[in-house]
Write a structure and sequence with these properties.
Rossmann fold; about 30% helix
Amino acid sequence: MSLPHAPGETIGPRRGDVEAALRAAVRDVPDFPSPGIIFKDVTPVLADATLLREATEAMAAPFASDRVSHVVAVEARGFIFGAPVAQHLGAGFIPVRKAGKLPWQTERVEYALEYGSGTLEIHRDACRAPMRVLVVDDVLATGGTAAATCRLVERLGATVVGCSFLIELGFLGGRAQLDGRRAEAVIRYA
């Protein structure tokens, strides 16, 4: 178990070693979920306990000195990475889900994604000032999901410190959708 870290303290393994191991583990699945898409499958990373720990440490490390109070992550793969990132940072965890999945009063936002559209919801009482939130997801593609999540968090009064991703598909331009917010990714495919 990781404990909260002092500002400026290095956490996690050396980034280059982890990035190389992750690149070797992530597999390409052509034509999924539709023809012409090359899906980045992270399930081999999830199956390797050491690599999963190193991946989440690497996702947390750039934000170790940012006083993150909460990690907000989007279902489903975002949950897998978000909860351990929160633990590494000594932060709480807040889920963002698809419409109709949360049991309490919600705030919602509609958004566009790389192959369709969707609606995300968060509990209305989940975020407020002075919370400092890190948004976490597995992949930054077109940026729609991450941008919508940031809007939800800010609408409720919290501050988005940044966004952390395992993978960034840079060729899809998702970073531009984040309106200048800080975004970090462990692996970037140009």
